[in-house]
Each structure stands twice: as C-alpha cells, then as structure tokens.
Amino acid sequence: MPTKRGQSAPIQAATGPSKATAPAEPVSAPQAQSEITIHSPTKWKLRILGTHVTLQEKLRLKAQQDLGIELEFAPGGSAQVMHQASTQPKSFDLYEQWSNSIRVLWQAQTIQPIDSTRIRNWSEINQLTTQGRLTSDARVGAGDAPNKILFVQEDNSLGSRVTDRVSFLPYVHNADSFGYDASQIKRGIAYETESWSWLLDEKHHGKVAIVNEPTIGLFDLALAAQAKGLLQFRDIGNLTRKELDQLFSILLEYRKSGHFRGVWSSVPASVELMKRGESSIESMFSPAVYQLRGQGIDCVYASPREGYRAWHGVMCLSTAVSSETQDAAYEYMNWWLSGWPGAFIARQGYYISNPQRSKPFLSEAEWDFWYRGLPATEELVGTDGSKVAEKGQRRDGGSYEKRFSNVAVWNTVMQNYEYSLIRWNEFLSS
To answer: What is the pTM of this model?
Structure first.
C-alpha cells in the first residue's frame, strides 16, 4: 500500500507475522526528530472540534510552533461535539474523538475519506488498528474494533478490507474501565477481583458516577449488570431492543433509589467529583486518574476480570473543508504521528498507533512504565509536571499487550443506537 508520495510499502499489520512484535523490542527505533516540513508561504488556520482528551493547550502551542499553522481548538463534552460534527460540517475542519463517532458521521456525510498515501508514517500503524488486536491470541472484543470501520470500500461502505482511503486517522487509543479511590474502597487484584459489578454494588450506594455518553456509559453499565449476574447479553456490542429494555428497567431502579451520584461530561468534571469526595467510584478516562494522583488522591484504574471497554481515537476530515485548508489538515495529521505528540500523551496513560516513532521522545523509565508495564525505576511525572508514579510502582493493568489482550467491548454505535438514546435520556431524567 502507498505510504509516502512516490513510494510504496506494505502495511506491516496486514503482511507481517501472525503474532505482533512487542513494542518494547524494536528492530530499530526512529530518530527523535521532526519530519514535518511546510512548503506554503501562506498562513493557515485550522479549526479542530473535539474533547478535552486531546484538545489540550500544550499540544496546540507545540503544533503551532512546529507547523506554523494557526490552530483553533474547540473542546467540549463528547455527546455535544458529536452532535455538532454530525449536523454542522462547516463548523470544523478536523474532528477529534473516538471510534464510536464514525458510523454516525459517515452516515450523516459530514466527514470525507482520508488519503492514506498522504500520511507519511502510515506504514508504521500497528496491528491493533488494522487487524483489531496486537497479538494473534488477544481478544478482539465485541463491537466496532477499529479495523471494522477504518477502510473505505469501493461501494463507499466501511470495512476491514485494506484500501488507500480511510474514514479516520488512527492515533490515540486506550483500554478504559473505572477509577476508584483506594482510601474509600479496598484495593482489588487486577484481572482477578476487580470487576465491573462494583459499579452496581450496594456498598457504593450514592457514590457512583457515570460518563454521560450513551455509546460509552451504556457499555459500562451493561458490563456491570452482566458481571453482577443481573442479565446475560447475546452480544454486548449490539444489544437488542428487548435487552435494552431489560437493562434500563434495572438501571432506572438504581437511579431512582439514589445509587448514582450523577453523570459527568468532561474529564475535568470527573476529576472534581472524586476530588470533592462526591464519588468514590466512577467511569473514568486515563488523564483523570493521573490528575487525581497528582493531587494526592490514591485513584486506581481498575483492570476488570471481565475485560476493558476499549476505544480508538479518530481524527476526521470535514466534507466542508476548503482545498487550501485541507493541506494544513494533512500536515496536522502527519504531525500527530511524528513522535513527540505520542510521547506527550503517553505521560497521561494513552497509546499512539505507531509507538516506535514516539519511543525516542520518552526516557527509558517512561517507556518501560507506560508501554512495557515494568516498575518505574524513578519517580515519573505527567503532562502537567505533577507526580503520577512512585519509584517501584507499576502501571495499572500492566503492559500495552496485556491491557489490549483483555478487551471486552469497543465503544460502538449499535444497530439500535437511536432507541438506546431514548432509553439513555429517560435514565438521565429519572
């Protein structure tokens, strides 16, 4: 498959060995230098719509410095920005969120195919994106694994057959679960005693918070109900109307009894809930865990025995973007896979789809902790400079391969998505 202008190379994930090489043992690491070169004398401006997860000020300033492009970040809650992106393509040039956005935006025709031959490091994209798993014996997980919705087919549908046109730039991703305050809840054992059922445990009545996003929070609660033995789903990545009714019948009773402290719509809001002691256990994204630790709260990111709810970051190109701005958009997409950005987001617990490119920008101690799951050989700090790991501490859940070998379900827009929205809104308003 073409990977650079005028050159071609095979996609490593599609033609490589059946078992992926662990990122900790590279054949050769790329040099820690930027490949981004701007050839236009004009001053570009790029409008990027997304969430607080990636639309961070430090990233904006670094990209502006490296690219000479004026960047306008518009972060918001996940449900809010997905609605805007699906109805107002003229309001953004690039959209950053998660893979559960893709089917909605593709059907709404507000995003256009990305030409992978214009992505300079495309050949470095790993097997998790292109095949749905890092190793041949890993669980792919239910729902929309990224490879199922990545490639644009000849009939303009999305599928796993490799083509030069893709629906999104694959970049940031993670395996998510829930966070809990170990000063309030006894610390569990990863993959053994930690369980999604904790979200519905009566011991945590009134102290549980859920993310306000039906394609995410719904799966957290479905996993919890199934783990607690309240329901058994045929396919947790594609619930039937009957299963949704059964699930929400249970959840509404929990809601009315005051079991849930509330819902949150942004990472800062989730941090505040636990920081103020209003919640002791909640749906959580990785940056929130490390922000809380940096503030002295012993927040544990659970490794549920049932498996993680995984997501893959997507960067999408608006159908309304101008031809001039499109060039800037491709430069920005290339920048994200150039090394430094992947190292930056690793320090808040996220992975990048071509990790070897970022390895030279991380210290050996950081690489071993974040990607290999080894004990920290020194105190480590996060993106805000606060301490996120003590010497000797391991990353919750272990290595990149270990965590992504245990995926229960991917963030997904189900066939009954519209009906799930009705039931979700009923749950919120009850």
So the answer is: 0.86
